[in-house]
Amino acid sequence: MQEARLSVRRCDALVIGCGVMGSSVSYNLASRGLRVVNVERFRVNHELGSSHGRTRIIRLAYYEDERYVPMLRRAFEAWREVERKSGAQLLRMTGGLMMGREEGELVGGVLRTARAHGLEHHVLSAREAEERFEAFTLSEEFVAVHEESAGMLFAEESVRAFVGLAREAGCDFVQSAQVTGWKAGPEGVEVEAGGERFLADRVVSCAGPWTGQLFPGVLPLKCERQVPLWFSSLGDGAFGPDRMPVFIMEEEPGRFFYGLPEVGHGVKVARTHEGDIVEPDRVNREVASEDTAPVEAFVARRLKKLGREPIASTTCLYSNTPDFNFAIGPHPKEGRVLVVSACSGHGFKFASVIGEIVSDMVTGKKNEFDVSWLGPERFNQKPNPG
Ligand SMILES: Cc1cc2nc3c(=O)[nH]c(=O)nc-3n(C[C@H](O)[C@H](O)[C@H](O)COP(=O)(O)OP(=O)(O)OC[C@H]3O[C@@H](n4cnc5c(N)ncnc54)[C@H](O)[C@@H]3O)c2cc1C
């Protein structure tokens, strides 16, 4: 850390990063009366991280791990509360359709979770699913699980809503300021960013794909490039949110595609994972035919009434832990610094509840959710505090 003679700004909590996690944590902390500074390297809703774009899926029958279900129930409620307070529509319920072989990771996992938690769901044969949802073409051997408790979140509106509410609660946002170093001392954690020095009682890092740069060796994160695409519908309404649910399809074992209905910009379709592992500052932002071809072929097989060529694309980054579960908890060497990596490609929907959980950790309030299984220490890294 540079020893430049800069004036020091004191705060109760300094939040690094203003993606969906950092903005939610900032809102939650500020609304509890803490003096919060949020420091963002770029600007709100920039397109280089993980939270930009139009929409994200939210769902309840979580095939990944049923331990997420209690958090998800609260996440839905908390999103509704943020909607009420901000006046913005953030959530659009569409239902969700999970398709694949019954014994597969996706359908098998959804059924296991739905049964374990008594979640309402309907199992449809391939033909029944096609009749009910004309957007899709399924293989004969597939089944589809329909759950009502699924829909989409409007991504950039969500970040804007958190930022607006956090500002109203007194949070100070510093943009175009990169945190370049931190040092814990007896008076607090000193952080240097954008030519300023801050002294915070607590620091919460929500640095997304850049977490590894700030905390080398703390989390074994891999940053994965993703390319979602948008396709035009032919305008008969079959792909609108009233008739098309958000969906995930496990076409082959371990090979997942997902999509969301048209809300004015085309139908979003992408494959998940299978992307290049990259350095977050050296990402190829050009979208090439290697990126689009597998998704175009999927659309031709499974969403036959969509236009065959994408009308829009973007690049976006996943930060994957080795077990694809989130990492939320104290830095292994400095308890006043919390590290939040709620990505692994599925974190957005949790941002509303993770903001609450992290704020409980900061303020020492007992939280109703057991997140000990998500602690960063489970990876047993040798930290190299930076
Ligand atoms: C293509 C794609 C589709 C997805 N689909 C879904 C979905 O359908 N449902 C779902 O639930 N989840 C989904 N996700 C995952 C979800 O979007 C992420 O989990 C979530 O956006 C992570 O947010 P974040 O705030 O942790 O990271 P980010 O949004 O990347 O925010 C991190 C911020 O920290 C800032 N920062 C980093 N380093 C510094 C520093 N040194 N100083 C200051 N600022 C710094 C960055 O500039 C950035 O703004 C998807 C992700 C992608 C990429």
What brief labels describe this structure?
24% helix, FAD/NAD(P)-binding domain, alpha+beta, D-Amino Acid Oxidase, Chain A, domain 2, 2 domains, 386 residues
Listing every helix as H and every strand as E from the N terminus to the C terminus, the arrangement reads EHEEHEEHEHEEHEEEEHEEEEEHEEEEH
Name of the level-1 CATH class of the largest domain = Alpha Beta
Q: What molecules are bound to this protein? A: flavin-adenine dinucleotide
CATH architecture descriptor name of the largest domain: 3-Layer(bba) Sandwich
Low-confidence stretches: none
How would you name the CATH homologous superfamily of the largest domain? FAD/NAD(P)-binding domain
Q: Please bin the fraction of helical residues.
A: 10-25%
Individual helix count: 8
Characterize the biggest β-sheet.
8 strands, mixed
Shape: globular
Q: Beta-sheet strand percentage?
A: 25-35%
**Count of discrete structural domains:** 2
Structural classification: alpha+beta
Kindly report how far apart the N and C termini lie: 8 Å
* Rg from Cα: 21 Å
The CATH topology of the largest domain corresponds to: FAD/NAD(P)-binding domain
